[in-house]
Amino acid sequence: MPRILLFDIDMTMVRTAGAGRAAMEEAFAREFAIENATSGMLFDGRTDRGIFCECLERHGLAGPDLAPNLARLCESYLEALPGWLAKKGGVVLPGVRELLDALRGEDAIVGLATGNLRRGAASKLGHFGLWERFAGGGFGDDHIIRAGLVSAGIAELLERSCLDRRDCEVIVLGDTPLDVEAAHGAGAKAFGVGTGRFTPEALRASGAEFAVEDLSETGRVLEMLLG
User: Fold this and answer.
1) CB neighbours of 151 closer than 8 A, spacing ≥ 6?
2) Rounded to whole angstroms, what are the CA distances from 209 to 62, 107, 167, 168?
3) Same domain for 136 and 197?
4) What is the pTM of this model?
5) In the chain, how many domains are there?
6) One domain for residues 100 and 130
7) Contacts of 71 (CB under 8 A, 6+ apart)
8) Which domain, by its residues, includes 50?
9) Are 83 and 99 in the same domain?
10) Domain final residue, candidates 53, 69, 88
11) Per-residue confidence (pLDDT) for residue 126, from 0 to 100
12) Which of 88, 106, 122 is the last residue of a domain?
């Protein structure tokens, strides 16, 4: 049976050393003269749209002006992000490159299920030379609830591969309980990766069908993903 594998980005495949938050802070300061706009906010497992909308509301910039303010903020963030990625550096997490290499030629369609804006995802993964590894997916441009972007990612990859959903198994890889919840909400299985704030045990407790410390044991991870 073909597999659709949807990977989260931040803390599942890469660590950007705070580049995304720094770009958001720059965008708020540039567009609205607000410093430390995201102070105290947790980003784990959330979508960029959800983070931006909450932050705009916190600072009195929502209401009837939400749509234009959100558009300004997203564009400014996307302009700032490449520079912060270059400054911060960041790393690809253990086993990611090897796993993506091993999946080539397997009966699997590899895509993304990420809260990043699509162009932000391209910037982050492009910085590490990984963007071209993915056939498409679901992104945080239009979704606050993460299950929506997982469903969108499944639909996009099914359309591109001309497969029927009934003929595929879908597995979502992520590092937070929100990834697990979103996978199940979209009718997929969840594969927890303990490279973020949550241990494999916590991810299993949240309902993940599979969970590992990291992706470094390529053979073991492949066996879990492909059966």
Assistant:
1) 138, 185, 186
2) 38, 20, 20, 17
3) yes
4) 0.94
5) 2
6) yes
7) none
8) 19-88
9) no
10) 88
11) 98
12) 88
What is the structure's pLDDT at 174?
A: 98
Q: Please give the average pLDDT of every successive group of 10 residues along the chain, which has 227 residues.
A: 94 97 97 94 89 94 93 97 97 98 94 98 98 96 91 95 89 97 97 97 98 98 95
Q: Give the C-alpha separation, 202 to 109, whole Å.
A: 28
**Residue 1: per-residue pLDDT:** 79
User: Are 148 and 38 within one domain?
Assistant: no
Name the token pair of 69. Answer: 């303010």
Count of CB atoms situated within 10 Å of the CB of 182:
29
**Cβ partners under 8 Å of residue 149, min gap 6:** 47, 113, 114, 115, 138, 139, 140, 142, 143, 182
Q: Exposed/middle/buried for 24, CB within 10 Å: 0-12, 13-18, 19+?
A: buried
